[in-house]
Amino acid sequence: MRKRIVRLSFLKLVLISALVGLLSATLAVTLKRITAHYEDKMLEAILPHRLLLVIFPAIGLLLIFLLRTWLFKKKKNLGIKEIYKTLDTRHDQLPAYKIPSHYINGFLTVIFGGSTGVEVSTVVATATVGAVTGQKVNMPRKYKAELICAGVAAGVTALFGSPLTGLLFALEVIARKVTRTVALSVVTAITAAQVLLSVLHEKPLFVFHTTGWQWRALPYILLLSVLAGLIAVLFTRSVIYIKYRFASVSNDYVRIGIGAAIIGVLVCLLPQLFGDGYFAITDMLNKAMVQPFTLPFAFTLLAVVLIKPFISSVTLGAGGDGGVFAPSIVIGSLLGLLIAVLFNQYLGTELIIVNFMVIGIAAVLSASIHAPLTATALGCCFTGGYVIAIPVFLACVISRYVASSLYKDTVYTYKA
């Protein structure tokens, strides 16, 4: 009898995990699509009138503040720390309003120029999908972590078109320990998500064509890895400090005004900082491949790499929704591109540019969230295979070590 009850319990967990996977993947795909569509439309309309970029962030941040005040119980979104709090507290639950709150606020933040992305918004919203679904179907409380991880895994799978990235992120970053039921729930959810992606013919976020890598590039990969770790620490410390400084401003409208002014001016000067910045990755890569090297191009890359951590921190401090995921991808890709073009130009190294962009993405992300396996999977996902898996993994391990040696916390784990 006991074995039969256990089997039925597992079967119910599998079925509910599949449902959570479908719902979470649907949420992630729709948010990704509409955000990308309207971000492109906004940029296309505004770039001929650059000064409008100064006022756009103010509109977005004000709308988010008003929505939080009137619809979302005046509660600030705390990102992935909300999930940790729920998992670490037996009776605490993610309330259902977190789904529309993160969905809408993440969307508004990006399309009005806030320099983050919808990844963390998606993670918290899909975690809430898992938690709320479990409550609605009367799942035992002991499966709360399983269903939260299932939602997150499916959401990340849908964002990047990579089941392995979704699996590892849920286990390495969210669960932080693997049990049989967590693994079962997560695998079921990402399978359901992948089925939906196949039906929708969803394309990967990026496709970098790589054909191999060279051992003689190792010294430059090591340099990139160390720099990635240093920049990740700068980013983490910047987020923590700037959020603290903004929190000390008691007047909400003053806080929004200061943040919007900083974001607006910087975006006006460097449009590559607008929104998630993914368009800048493609644009800069195309320029590097077809145009001769120039110092203004190198300085633009350097400026984005150094300013992106600051402007993303200001976006979060002023009330925008998001996290470090998208900024880490942008910073890492352009850091890798900068190193490759500089050494190719001045030392004739013939480094493969796309390889260094992918390695940079993975290295900065690994150092920012202390998740080398997730970052390696994401890097390989962007290349469509494992041709450069060895240097990607090596860079992720080194950058993570450098970052954790200098500062033990991430933006997810620091104590406010």
TrEMBL record:
Lipid bilayer topology: Multi-pass membrane protein
Keyword annotations of the record: Chloride, Chloride channel, Ion channel, Ion transport, Membrane, Transmembrane, Transmembrane helix, Transport
An example molecular function term from Gene Ontology annotations: chloride channel activity
Cellular component terms (Gene Ontology): chloride channel complex
Chain ranges passing through the membrane: 52-71, 147-170, 182-200, 220-244, 256-281, 293-311, 323-344, 351-369, 375-398
Major localisation: membrane
Protein name: Chloride channel protein, CIC family
Native species: Filimonas lacunae
